[in-house]
Design a protein that fits this description.
It is a single chain. The chain is an all-alpha fold. The chain has a domain at 42-71. It has helices spanning 10-35, 41-70. Helix 1 (10-35) packs antiparallel against helix 2. The mean pLDDT is 93.
Length: 71
C-alpha cells in the first residue's frame, strides 16, 4: 500500500535545505579565503564551481518554498 502524500512539512524541509546549503557555501568561501595560496588552481576552480551550483540550488529551493507557501 502506498503512503499518503503528506506535504504539510515541505516548507520546513526546504528551509532546512536552504540553511544547510548556505552553511556549506560559507564554509567553502571561508576555506578559500584562508587557504587559497596553498591550493592548486584546479582545486580552487572546483570549489568555485561547486559554490556556483550551491547558489543555483539555493535560488531553486527558495522558489520552491514560495510555491509551497502559495498552495
Amino acid at each position: 500500500m502506498a503512503k499518503p502524500d503528506n506535504r504539510a512539512d515541505n516548507e520546513v524541509h526546504l528551509q532546512q535545505h536552504i540553511d544547510h546549503t548556505i552553511a556549506n557555501l560559507r564554509e567553502a568561501e571561508d576555506y578559500l579565503d584562508e587557504h587559497a595560496e596553498e591550493l592548486a588552481p584546479d582545486e580552487i576552480q572546483r570549489i568555485k564551481a561547486k559554490n556556483k551550483r550551491r547558489k543555483e540550488s539555493i535560488r531553486n529551493f527558495i522558489a520552491e518554498k514560495k510555491d509551497e507557501a502559495q498552495e
